[in-house]
Amino acid sequence: MTATQNPKVIAAGTSEGGQELRSRSELSAKELFREVGSVLRMSETDAAALAEMQAEAPEDQTMIINMGPQHPSTHGVLRLMLELQGETVLRCKPIIGYLHTGMEKTGESLTYMQGGTNVTRMDYLSPLNNELVFSMAVEKLLGIDQDIPERAVWMRMLLSELNRMSSHLLFLATNGMDLGAISMMLYGWREREEVLRFFQKVTGLRMNHNFIRPGGVAADLPAGWRDDVLEILENLPSRLEEYDILMTGQPIWRERLQGVGIITAREAIALGATGPILRSTGVPWDLRRDTPYLRYDEVDFDVVVGEHGDAYDRYAIRFNEIRESMKIVYQILDRMPSGDYRIQNKKVTPPPRARIDESMEALIHHFKIFTEGFKVPEGEVYVAIESPRGEIGCYIVSDGSPTPYRMHMRAPSFVNVQALPHMMRGGLVADAVAVISSIDPVLGEVDR
Amino acid sequence: MSESTAHETTVQELVHGCPSVESFGQKVVFVDRDKYVSVVKALVTDGFEVCVDLTGVDYLTHSGRTLPAGITAERFEVVVNLLSLEQRERLRLRVQVPESDPVLPSLFDFHPGTEAHERETFDMFGITFEGHPDMTRILMPEDWDGHPLRKDYSIGAIPVQFKGAHS
Q: Which of residues 79-138 of B touch A (CB under 8 A)?
């Protein structure tokens, strides 16, 4: 206990090197090989070619440059250290942590009721998916995951699919911007805004909703919601066709993306990459289909899979996933049941406002839930769902108190960013921007 | 850590010689530190080819947790989530790591995707992974003291002086 009470002692006992990319003269050959071949399952010829490429470039002919953290194409505060020989990227190391705000530590002092406000700010482009996975984990611990009312389940699906559309539309915008298609940037933001306007109508906020909560959702859908969704769904197809003409078939767009940032299925699996990156390599893995949650097993949709594992495939997958999400939303509109929007379990659901005026017990109950929170039985659970960026998982350890003992989010971007050095190696520095963009990282989630 | 307070659960089956229990319908395997690497390696051949997540937990203030017989509760735990794409199955490993010697072998050689996770666990809990190519802090600044997600690391506060308040 003596050592742990003084953090300095522990810090001194551990060997903490610098986080930056070290120059090759400081590294032993073995270390360098491990760093360069961060995916170690290479064939022997690949490894030999790699060693040659490294030997060909003496250190006085290469240059280490910093890209970011204040670079518009790094989607926030990602910093890349690149070792270049001329225009070719020899090594790359992503340096993260510039947006670290200790959200997992904060999560330990917020009740399960308040936890949603914390996790929703992690992946700020798909806040509803973060809330959903957190709520599902808490519900599993409470043992009420099978008792969530149907309307709440379908509302959750509606919102998370619309969120997937808004996130992918923003990807189209930023991907276009990174490659110089500025019109696409404006169109993408415009379309996303229409979805966010719907979110504002339903949840009160454009982003960081805290709408999906343990036990259901915060409120029922507002009057006229169906027309609003239909308006989005009816406007979008013609616009998507327009983007197809603007970008998909355009020779410059293809030249910039095809064959750039290639990753194979074996490498993606080894690196733990999920979502569109894994699917671009031809692995049909989508948690919505493969380990269904909510009612995804009752709706009909296709898992979009690529073939080449390049930036173009990742673009095309996201583009077509918007269409698949629209397909799902149409089915949700047809099947949206009526009924409660949150579980009628007195433990997790506060009493309705009207009851507070007439009943002292209801007032106390309401006060208790919001000040103290509800107690969650002891245990630990990991729940994973498919966010627009890949598998988002929530690991919660409960010690029986109203706050999580440990709350960990498995952030898809955090893992996917590891694929960057591998995708960039041997490519041109001009393609680096296209590769970062194709990973679609959200730094709020990388750093948490 | 007082081991006597730990509850015991019924072991359902053995996975590569390690006790496994069911936690909310999810399979959890308790692995000894010595067997950690060999079990993960054996699980790769069983089809658990993706290491989805690796993280730590500090059980300093929650010592009475439920563990199967034969597993000694230690202060730290490393939790590894494995996934089999073919069988569509998940498996969670929990490894006890003592406070006096917070070291675990790295999984980098067969799960290169744990590179960032192990660095994060080192950064947040001070658990060192032997054989990791780049055991440095990842989220906190290099010169930071302490490991923030440990339970004895205070969250800190800035004193705020209110006008007219008593001291």
A: 79, 81, 85, 88, 90, 92, 99, 108-109, 111-117, 120, 122, 124, 126, 128, 133-138
